[in-house]
Amino acid sequence: MMRLNELLGQDFNDDVLDKSLDKNVEILGMTADSRNVLPGYMFAALPGSVVDGAKFIGDAVKNGARLILAAPEVDFPDGVETVLRDANPRRQLALLAQRFFKFAPPQIFAVTGTNGKTSVATFIDQILTHAGQSSASMGTLGVKAGDYQLPLEHTTPEPVMLHAILRDLYALGVESLAMEVSSHALAQFRVDGVKVNVAGFTNLSRDHLDYHENEHTYLDAKARLFSEVLVQDGVAVINRMGAKSNFVEQAASKAERRIFTVDTVNADLTLTDVTPRADGLDFTLTYQGETLAVTTPIAGVFQAENIALAAAMCLAGGLPFKQLRVGLEALAAPVGRMEQVVSSPKGVACYVDYAHTPDALTTALMALRPHCKGRLICVFGCGGDRDAGKRAEMGRVAAHHSDHTIITDDNPRNEDAAFIRQEIMQACPAATEVANRREAIKAALKDADAGDIILVAGKGHETGQIVGYKIFPFSDHETLRDLVKELTVGKGEDD
Hints:
alpha/beta, Udp-n-acetylmuramoylalanyl-d-glutamate--2,6- Diaminopimelate Ligase, Chain: A, domain 1, UDP-N-acetylmuramoyl-L-alanine:D-glutamate ligase, Protein-Tyrosine Phosphatase, Chain A, six-stranded mixed beta sheet, 15 helices, 25 strands
């Protein structure tokens, strides 16, 4: 609850309101969903690519909306008490939500990029926790703060939910939050009210071109985190090893943000001597003349970059270099991120990874190759109603970097699953096609021998298969474990 004059603040003049209203009136809540409006609420009539929120102003008023936020060109039905007009109502909603909920963890780390966001945010949380801080993470895997967990529908929630979560984390005593920030969130101004102290960039490759017009607009959206959202005295932490890092670094520099770099040479934090082991990685970090040799159970050479970026962001946030060791050596892989789920009775290591772009699949397969004594087997598919251009690219990647590829289904949604598989198969005709994802994973297990590695890619942490508008329960993790049990007790179909 907040009085209108407090909500609007000193930046607003009376002329932004279509009608005068007692500035002491209380605004009891806010939402961009008319169905959630209660008496005394502010309703944000946001423009949408599918549905325009202005169409629901009448419903919001009937439900008791006291204040309407909308674009200047919107017409209003009778009965609307007060209208707050703004040329960018999405951004204004984010700023108002921050003012309404007031509180947030004092230090916020935000990471963006095509691949690696979840890993970096999770690693930051783990490092800070081991350093004795009360820390939390937010992103694709939901919100996690100690025993507190909250699933999320989107990687980065819409502004009202986001700031309500930030307030709750503050109330829990969380000192530092590591959050993922998606390109959708940046393009839709969801995080503009968040006081980001440290912003990190992983890399950029083809993804979400079904939403963004082209790669340039995609990159521009990512760069906003560093040039507009990051607080003026904040730190932009750039992984120079990541594709398109120069563009983001230039954007941060032009906006006069302090820059902290990560690279193999000539950087604030250097990453060297990356060596894969059968059970993890060895690498060295160097900062201001101090060196730290790290041994971690995390697999995949690319994860060394993610760990280094997480370490750099912690350093930029004020953590002493010597306090990194305990956290780094205790790191655990995030769910579905280069995660070894199980080993088969034959001694086949089975990994699950969220890789769903050509670049991510390339990275995952190349990262596993040094750990593989035998064949590298890849099981994956592509989603429906998403960027179709990446399907053939992912097929070529799998054909080139794996020894055996099995093409299957992965969230076909409203497209013909067989058609999606064929678009992938055009680029990898030697692959095996198995429509049912469970049967595809079973085929990989039955084909693999000791020393082989199986990578099941695409779903990662997801626990459902989207067909049409329905979500059917499906987990790569559970499927692998169940099938290995079947094979172990001799219940395979050939027995």
